[in-house]
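Hey everyone, long-time lurker, first post.

I ran two proteins through the pipeline my lab uses and got sequence/structure pairs for each. Pasting them in order. The first:
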Amino acid sequence: MLLLQGNQAYSDFALEKLVQNINLSKNERKKIRNTFAYLIETHNGSVMTEGELSRLSQLTESVNIISAEKLKQMTFAVRPRIGTISPWSSKALDICKNCGLDKVLHIERLTVWYLGELDNVEIGKIANTFYDKMTESLSFSVDELIKPRVREKPRKLQSIRSSGDNQLLYEANRAMGLALNDEEIVYLIDSYNSLNRDPTDVELMMFAQANSEHCRHKIFNASWIGEEAIGDLSLFDMIRNTHKKHPNGVLSAYSDNAAVTRGYRGNRMLINSITKYYEEIEEEVHIVLKVETHNHPTAISPFPGAATGSGGEIRDEGATGRGAKPKAGLTGFSVSHLRIPNFDAPWEIKRPLNPRLASALDIMLDGPIGAATFNNEFGRPALCGYFRSFEQKVNDHLTRGFDKPIMLAGGLGSIREKDIEKLKIKIGSKVIVLGGPAMLIGLGGGAASSVDAGAIDQELEFASVQRGNAEMQRRCQQVIDVCYSDNEQNPIQMIHDVGAGGLSNAVPELLNDSDRGGVIELRKIPSAESGLSPLEIWCNEAQERYVLAISEERLEDFKSICLRERCPFAVIGLVTEERQLILEDSLLGTNSIDIPMELLFGSPPKLVRNFLPKIPPKRPETFTHDFNLEKSLHEVLRFPSVGDKRFLITIGDRTVGGLTVRDQMIGPWQVPVADCAVTAAGFNNIVGEAMAIGERAPAAILSAGSSARMAVGESITNIAAARIMNLSDIVLSANWMCAEGSLDETSNLYEAVQSVGMEFCPALGINIPVGKDSMAMKSNWQDRKTNHENISPLSLIVSAFAPVIDVNKSLTPKLDFESESVLILIDLGKGKDRLGASILAQTKNQDFGECPDADDPQAIKDFFTAIQLLNENGYLQSYHDRSDGGLIVTLLEMAFASRCGLDINLPKLENPIGCLFSEELGAVIQIREANKHFVLDYFSQYVSLNEHIHVVATTNEKNEISIFSDGKVILKNSLQSLLRSFSLTTHAIQSIRDNPSTANEELESILDLTDPGMSIKKMPLPARRKINTKHSGKRPHVAILREQGINGFTEMAAAFKYAGFEAQDVHMSDIISGSISLKNIAGLAVCGGFSYGDVLGAGRGWASAVRYNKSVAEEFSDFFSRQDTFTLGVCNGCQMLSSLRDIIPGASHWPYFKKNLSEQFEARLSMVKISESPSIFFRDLEGLIAPISIAHGEGRADYPGLTRETKYCMQYVNNHGIVTQKYPANPNGSTDGVAGVTSDDGRVTLMMPHPERVFLNQQLSWKSALNSPTESVWMEIFHNAKRWIQN
């Protein structure tokens, strides 16, 4: 066992934040030090040569081998939880293998802590500060740290006695955390008695996962009784009713991992599976939609819980039909009050918190990073989301809120028409597991998530924690992509993702869907741990895995795809005609499973629930006599559900893939107030897709039906900003969260589902073809012998999806100043202005009467039709829906996005407070003054709307917000003051989570009203040049180079292809194997992404795979030396090439790229300036200033030990066009604002920004897109490459 000492693990400010609240003296805190250490185990204890040690030290940036004496000085080391292998380790081991370090069996990164002279008692008091007990362990002993891992013998199969003493099965249910009810246990006893044997522990765990509430949706399939229950309809029947009444364009519903709805014909960029060249295929681009929740794992360990929540949903999309492409994601969170230290929040009431769950603040600090990290590494833009903070005290023991959070993960994808339906598996086909190995993680997660938090043993909660490896999932998706890209020869017959329950769910489902059985060999399942029992191998929830059925004749084709993508796979069994599931164990010589499929998927007794409708009491409005409008407005703007949410947004890549048209950020100042997300079907298309979210959970405490209808309505008013042909084109995903069995929540659930499924959606003419339920939204705990409960309100989160006829007609809240205009309120609440459950009421902790309701489906239908027709005919300049915070927040968000003042004139009303703050459905539109009478006359034809259209505001140039009621000023406030309140919550969280100095600089930037916003200056070419898809003459060839984990290659290929190149897909495995040579290639594009998940330094692992393979290093060196070649490196490709500066002529002056100064992944549109340089890519572009996409975690240009003779070709500038060091204009803290550099002769250019993601105007979300797919200024980079190579 070898231990290498690495660099300092925590930056100075991160360390200071970690220890600032520890109860130690200032002098004692100063003595705390830390360092990374790398623990290396070799095969059979083999000794590494001096050269191998040197190579390993360079990879890990290690200083030396840590001696035993040095180790004795440590206080403790933080390591991955004993018995687990971290994702970091898996990726680092891949790098070692690809760098010729074959002796390395295992490598792990530790954080070693030195806490000075503290005694054991003092250490024990503070140790929990330094690690996450759910995913990490502490090692205090040197011997424990460096002792070799023992290869354990496999743990044995267990049988559980089910005959005679039935109590043993009940005890197993509790001890194993199976969460089976009494009826299911009786069903098992009867079933195994009929088989004349006892069940194995594997069979019991498998049954528990397959029949958990999480997987089987027992409550939604339950029978309901009661005088007002509708016949014998289950909740699921009611949801299905929406599709039965209005199937519309849905192509697949309720039968697959996700739903599919019809899209428009578009152009997809696919790789020809034979030639490996990119081709643009015109075909129907149908839409995959899915939204999941991952509440329990996020509650107990926020980062991995949210990460694997996003990862699991991505797998659902990819495993739809016979393989689909995840395209764009959404994320959401509901938590209790944040309780940010030193942040005044008058709505927060001190109360005991559940010690077994992460706090709301910890969830919002770590959970969004987990979800964003997985999406970023996988390569899916995160374009949409929501954030709800809610809490209501009932008494000293009961609180309503989200101590058990909601973590929402969803998205849309694309699927080819031929692949929508899974095939029936041929008998004799092979069962394959694709992806990573089995590990002892996530055991029993399906059952654990089906019970209330606190209802199972804490050790079982530890066991259910999962870990994510997005880079592995990226490789799996690449295999799927290759399979479906093969026009008529997709080898996949059927595919399922591996999620809750692990293989114990996925394999039986795969077989059962074809009415088959199967024989599986347990020991053929790849496993990273030798001592796993049969139960642990079969039932663990190791992520990033799929199971597939591949016919014998296509097996070799499939293997070759996996080998090229370096994606692990294993043939684990075969499909049989007999419906028997057999799990053989050749090592232990027995069958771990041998049961009829009907036992697993049979019909245990259905649950029965009682519906007792409640009559909500009349709730009078209770305004306090000292209501202060100005103070109340600022409190509403500071409330987390309303305020600026950029802390959730800039951490997520929103441009990867190159098909994003509308993300959360709006306008030249990039304010996060968008209503919906919009993507294009293809690069050369104006058709596409949209998605949006609706959610009104707090209203459910007053009226479950109203809350559900409002969620559906809000999803429609949000997605209406996109240009959608018909309301019936919209399809919904419904995610239901409920503390079923608590208070009135069971009846509330029935009321909400019945209202939406049987009445509201059918009246709207739309359907719900997919969804999810989570029925255990309660946490309970004891504090000094006092019982405490936190019960969530019934929560319906609706995600709306639709095909878009013209992505360039997407409306935003950004106001237009080209002519005089007015802002018009379309009031779907029809003047009722109900304030119950509003943000205003929540800030006051008061009951403000009845809650809003979507009372009139016809009004919503008319509203949608009117918006679409007015948009189509050019009457609408901007649009924003009314939601949290009410009309005043809608108007202010439009003002914030536009940096202007407003004169707000309220209609003549008895209740101006209700008009301002009620959260009834509706929207504000901006129209030209010259069109006002026409638009008002147009609305008059709609009986449902004509009395509820009001001119409410005009813009002013004073940066002042004035509110008038009855001609009198009732409030006047500066735009800056209101914007400050709007920004405080995100600033407070960034100050804790990120570098506080960059958080302060961002707030300063937001509040700078002299900032002119983004613009393009000195543009040297026509602004609206159309894409040329038909280039004449011979096309030069460019290699689009990728490594495992790279995700930005399709958009790079598209940009070069539209510039007139033939773009060839080249994987590093092709070069290492010799199947492709760089000798025949003139252009090389080194793409962005996360090679090896960015472990061992971003891009350095990739560069090392070149440097330490002699033939590959020579291949690259020869290529760079040839005078007839060019190279473009972007983002991860930039980092990789900068690490190869010694083999690139004229590159010795290049910088290294280090972690961003904010210590956070940064995804933004940044202004850059093209500097004078010899770069062939920037010919005639010198002096250009324009926005460009950036998305990276390690982009800070640094020059340790080097002179600054770098030939800058691109620098970060502020919106005034001045090179800057200030954040966020300089997103990473690069010295001299360096964003790109070039070689002495200009043939090799690197840049951290992504021109390939914004080569079209419609990809630049900072301004309204032009009305066709026209080239942006950044397309000139690729044209210049072609001009150079042809000269």
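...and the second, right after it:
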Amino acid sequence: MKHPFLELCKNKIVVLDGAMGTNLQKQFLTPQDFGGKDGCNEYLVITKPEAVRKIHEDFFAVGCDAVETNSFGSNRIVLAEYGLEDKAFELNEKAAKLARKAANKCATPDHPRFVLGSIGPGTKLPSIGHIGVDELREATKEQIKGLMAGGVDGLIIETCQDLLQTRTALIAAEECFAEAGRRLPLIAQVTIESSGTMLLGSDLHAAITTLEMFPIDVIGMNCATGPAEMTEHVRTLCENSRKLISVLPNAGLPENVGGIAHYKLTPEEFAAYHERFVKEFGVSIVGGCCGTTPEHLKAVVERVKGCVPKQRKVRHEPSCASLYGSVTFKQDPAPLLVGEQTNANGSKRFRQILERNDYEGLLEIGREAVKEGAHVIDLCVAFTGRDEKKDMTEAVTRFNQHVTAPLMIDSTEPAVLEEALKHISGKPIINSINLEDGEGKLATVCGLAKKYGAALVALVIDEKGMARTRDEKFAVAKRIHDLAVIKHGIRPENIFFDLLTFTVGCGDENSRSAAIETLEAIKRVKKEFADVRTILGVSNVSFGLAPQSRKILNSVFLHEAVAAGLDAAIVHVERIVPVFKIAPDDLEAAKNLIFNKWIDGKDPLEVFIRHFETKTGSASAVTKPGGSDLPVEDRLKAHVIDGVKEGLEATLDEALKKYRPFEIINQFLLEGMKVVGQLFGAGKMQLPFVLRSAEIMKRAVAYLEPFMEKKEGSERGRIVLATVKGDVHDIGKNLVDIILSNNGYKVFNIGIKQPIDAVLKAVEEHRADAIGLSGLLVKSTHIMKEDLEEMNRRNITLPVLLGGAALTERYVCEDLASLYRGEVHYGRDAFAALKIMEKIKAEDPETERIKEAKKMLAVKPVERPHAPRADHPREEPAKRRVSLVRHDNIVPRPPFMGYRILKNLRLQDIFPWVNKKSLYTVQWQFKQGDRTERMFDLFLQENVEPLFERFTQQCIREKILQPKAMYGYFPCYSEGDDLIVLDENGKIERTRFQFPRQKRDPYQCIADFFRPKSSGLLDVVAFTVVTMGSRIREVEEKAFKGHNYQEYLYLHGLSVEATAALAEYLHAMVRRELRIHLQDKQTKWEIFRQGYQGSRYSFGYPACPRLEDQRKLFGLIPADKIGVSLSEIFQMVPEQSTSAVIVHHPQAKYFSV
């Protein structure tokens, strides 16, 4: 396309303007200037147009070639937050006309000026379901039509945080151009965060691969960071994109100064970076984003004056992309592997899960395929009797967000293909086009590929059917190539020809040469069409043969196809064996069949079938792993102690030649676990490594189980584990499960929130020797007491292990032990539980006492009257001195009354608030032991910091933690020990918190920190609720059940501390809003130790232990809006949630009642 703006880009470095918001702030506009829509900069084009016009003219005055319209947030979705959604078209048109007028005023024949219509990302991310793509597309079209009506010279889709939002905006632009009958220059700019990816985790290569499939003129970056942080990304962009490049950084990284973002990069420093971007990297368009002023851009104009765009050497590699990353079509070693197990036509398992409407189950198969090594996932949900379009939408939206590999959408229906393509964030591959129904359907699908930026698989099928010979295959391929490339404008690099292969296993004459014909066709297509790719569904070649032989034949055929030039293969990756691992006789039999080679007049198919009928074990010869000089007995222990998986099965196989399975377990594996326990107890082994040993133990036992006779069990005892009623915390219980189950005990872990009836039912069903009860908060200790009383009432005396953060050894061994008629033990940690079980069983597995206890489980409970008790007994006020809390402090003025929900929280902003000391030493349980402090710090830096980086990035990438928060301010006053919270107007009592008071000096109570009613003045209190969502529990459970114990510990610990970090993050924000943040200490470590004014108190903890007061807090802040609810004992669900009462008083600090 020829356009004056693009012609200018060829001849000079084009300079765009700087920040709109920064320069509006400098005008000190009043709420009246915003027409009552304070904060809506876009509305100023109506209410205060001269303020916007001034900024445009100021940037033109310093030499900028183009300005952006004041329309960044002018789509109806964003404007709805201000009640302005019906003004979307008008605001965009006016913004364009305003900039157009300034451009015309400043333009001269020697210096034309241009206007670019600014389109921001909005506030909702379609990739994670915030908004539907159709709604987003229509809103963007309305915005574009307004900008075009106002006379913009081009469109700039900028600050893109979600590739699906970007694709949708580009599609909307193309639709608007088609309807208007004219095109405009089109710029797409992504935002790369300081983490190195876009907000949702997309790397820059994913963005380049995806966006270059659309007819954009410029691809660039803006916002988030300064030019220093952008440098390497600018280099990557210039080296890999064939489009013109634009770069619009912030004026450095923002610093919070007095509650206002301050950008410290000087105009000269800012301009120096741009000069480098232009001269060294070949950037064509420069400008500024947040914090940049006319002074910054004046310096840029002067620095790049006289520069011409540099010729760039671009390394273009045809690729596909997911939301997260890009995968090149050319793989080294070849081929590109496309996972086939997510196909309803080829996978029975996938089809059965689909029939149950278990879309999450489908997702797990996709993830498995990626773990096995698939580069791309072939997704097909077509199945008779089902709604394919609905199934595809359900599957694609999940795969798009949660599978890291790009997608190949496999369907014969254009409507299904389009529905899928709408919801994919990256660059997919369509499977497929052909000529079976003539050229019309091919044209439709090619149109979809161009519209949505997809590559294509082309099957060599025409109106006559599937091509079988090499000549037929090539003829159909050539016809499809000419139609797709010449007629429909598909680039050859984006076409994969599937030359089709047929089974060599049916024995008829036509099929004997099927493999040869396919291999020869691959060679010819690659020779004639150098830029296209080839692909095969490999397993078709072995259809009809015995399962044990198919794996070998498929593997050998794939090897031969790659040698012939095959680029991609649709396979079940785990079922492909490298040729060097295949036994020579297996390899020969497979090759003879593929190439129809008759030896001594023998049919190669018959020889192949008979050959594998004689095979009793694995069809491949795998090299035996290297041994060790240690005896096998010591190697068994070493596997467990060192947590080494490699060679485990070979060691077990060797041991089975000398020992029975139960002897291996009891004499060697359990001895290894015993050493692990000793090392842990001595502080010489960290918990994460203990869990790795447990994983190896679990793997070894699972391997030995098929060799055991039923009577051979190595069970040392039985225990039922549960978290008590209402309590959602299970990490401690699960760690006990791991250690006991890997030390020979049979564990029945019945989960969280278990009433005592369920526990005792499990005890009876499984004939348990002991019960383990766990709970985190103080309320749970009361439930434990009630459970023990109920067991007394039923005359049950089984040994009970109690554990949890709120328990103390003294409370268990004195208070609870004296209450219960049986044995009560305090389980400080998982290995303490192991020692307790060993002690219990050492008495005799079936003492009369335990037998009697088991019998009593079947006895009907004896009803005994007991005195009723009040739900919330009120303590008598303690005798106290005059309160030492002063009330001459200034009561802050909050920015609003009532509650608000925080939107678009980013883990990248929250993780810096994680208390790493607590995470590493408490949650992950890395201990200093006998190391010096310096050596321990070095150990953490070298071994644990990488774990932190790995798991934080995983949580961001896979959306494992989903931060949500809400908070509110309310007028209040105190009355004795009560805090009375009023409505937003300060008139009506909403609720009353009755806080306990210390019974010792200084007799503190939370209510003391608020103005008393007698003062006649109102105070203010803040409440918060934060959560990391429920997905983390699903991920933890999967890791736990899959025996990935280290991952389970790391993810759980991180989720706990990330929740606390979110609470800290929100508390810091509250302090800023109340303007008491100037008292904050300088370092995070000081902040974690209450280095700020005021305090944050949570129910269930020492200063306010009554967990039931959560119900009152939830009455003020409806936390169900962010997915948080209360259990029957008032604990929050999901588990990783926390609430708080925030007190601003300078004397408020933590204390215990």
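Reply from user beta_strand_b:
Welcome! Quick read of the second one: The CA atoms of residues 486 and 743 lie 69 Å apart. The chain has a mean pLDDT of 89.
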